[in-house]
Amino acid sequence: xSITLRQRMHQDLQLAGLAEGTQKMYLRAVRQLATHVDKxxxxxxxxEVRDYLLYLKNERKYSPSSLKIAARGIVxxxxxxxxxxxxxxxxxxxxxxxxxxxxxxxxxxxxxRFRIPGTPYGIEAGRASGSARISCCFLAS
Length: 141
Prior knowledge:
With about 140 residues, this protein is α+β, with helices and mostly antiparallel strands. It has two domains: about 5-90, DNA polymerase, domain 1 (Orthogonal Bundle); about 105-140, no CATH class. Helices cover about 50% and strands about 20% of the residues. It is built from five helices and four strands; from the N terminus they run H-H-H-H-H-E-E-E-E. It has helices at about 5-15, 20-35, 45-60, 65-80, 85-90; strands spanning about 105-110, 110-115, 120-130, 130-140. Helix 1 (about 5-15) packs across helix 4 (about 65-80) and helix 2 crosses helix 4. It is elongated and about 55 Å long. It starts with a helix and ends with a strand.
C-alpha cells in the first residue's frame, strides 16, 4: 500500500472513531489485498476484490468473523479513502458464525456459559493466561 493512501486511510479510520485495534486490522486487510493482487490499492478493480474475498473464504478457509473483518476493512477503504460505487459492496453479506444448537450462552466475567437444556448442567468456555479453557459445570437456576 502506498504511504500516502495508507496515511489517508489511517486518518479516515481515526475520524470514523474506530478503535486502534480495528484500525490496524483494517489497514492490514487492505495491505494484504494489495499484496495478493500485486497492485497499489487505488488501482484494484471490483472483480479483483471479489476474487480476493472468495479466495479468503474458499482457499484460505477464513472463519466468518475473520472474513468479516477483512471485508469491512476493504469496504471501508473503497467507500471512504478511495470512494468507489461498486455493486459488490451493496450485495456483500457475510453470515454470522453459527452457535451451538440448543445452547443459550451467558457472558460471565470474560467467560461464556452454555446451559444444556433440560438439565442443571452446562459448559463453560473462557480464556485463562492466554489459553482457551472449556469445562463442564453445574449452573444454579
